[in-house]
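Consider the tokenized backbone below.
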């Protein structure tokens, strides 16, 4: 009679040997535990000294980038960075908040640690899209309607904003309903939708009410824009109207589906 096959013999050996026994690692001695604990304490103390006590990782320089109108010196002064203090302890959020409060021209600021001993300030300034004249000065207004700076000389290419709101009739009702800030934002909305060629020629954005905004262009030309709604449609209609009637002096796109022009 034939004996067991090789496979059967292997199966029997596995059955007889049972499941594999787990490996046991030797328990570390008290001496080893003490040494490891001492090493961890030493490393932690060294790291703490390097970060807080060492002169190597203290603030020595503050760099500024991204400025256009502001100077790096103005930004550094307003930042009031804690030169000489440990770099790790610098309050980044406090510097950012302080800069925005002291320098309203700053739209966004990114403050980062530059190891081993520097602070980097990356500035994004607001851009004026309209100007409000105040006596012999001008107040700059950005694309969010924020009045952020007062200057003595109007920059080229930025139109004036005129709030020609009367205190009677529909104009006064519009002012009571929306408020001056909302009317300014509506003017900004219109200015932001102008075709590039028209924007370059715009000298004045006049607001009589929420629904009555007009433009004064170079060459004694005017544009009745209406409200800030459907700005993209109005921009396309105005571009087509100016191409079709290049000698016209008055354009009306308040209803963009029925634009009109007149004068020559």
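A designed sequence for it:
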């Amino acid at each position: 009679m034939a004996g067991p096959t090789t496979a059967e013999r292997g199966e029997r050996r596995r059955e007889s040997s049972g499941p594999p026994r787990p490996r046991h690692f030797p328990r570390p001695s008290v001496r080893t535990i003490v040494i490891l604990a001492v090493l961890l304490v030493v490393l932690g103390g060294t790291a703490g000294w390097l970060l807080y006590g060492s002169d190597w990782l203290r603030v020595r320089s503050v760099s500024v980038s991204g400025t256009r109108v502001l100077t790096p010196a103005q930004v550094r002064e307003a930042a009031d960075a804690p030169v000489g203090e440990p770099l790790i302890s610098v309050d980044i959020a406090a510097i950012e908040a302080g800069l925005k409060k002291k320098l309203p021209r700053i739209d966004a600021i990114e403050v980062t640690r530059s190891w081993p001993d520097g602070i980097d300030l990356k500035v994004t300034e607001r851009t004026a899209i309209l100007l409000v004249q105040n006596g012999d000065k001008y107040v700059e207004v950005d694309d969010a309607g924020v009045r952020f700076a007062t200057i003595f000389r109007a920059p080229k290419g930025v139109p004036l904003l005129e709030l020609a709101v009367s205190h009677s009739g529909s104009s006064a009702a519009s002012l009571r309903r929306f408020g001056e800030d909302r009317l300014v934002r509506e003017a900004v909305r219109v200015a932001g939708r102008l075709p590039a060629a028209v924007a370059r020629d715009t000298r004045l954005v006049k607001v009589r009410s929420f629904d009555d905004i007009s433009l004064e262009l170079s060459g004694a030309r005017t544009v009745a824009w209406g409200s800030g709604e459907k700005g993209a449609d109005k921009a396309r209609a105005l571009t087509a109207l100016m191409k079709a009637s290049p000698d016209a002096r008055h354009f009306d796109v308040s209803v963009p589906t029925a634009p009109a022009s007149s004068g020559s």
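The chain has a mean pLDDT of 85.
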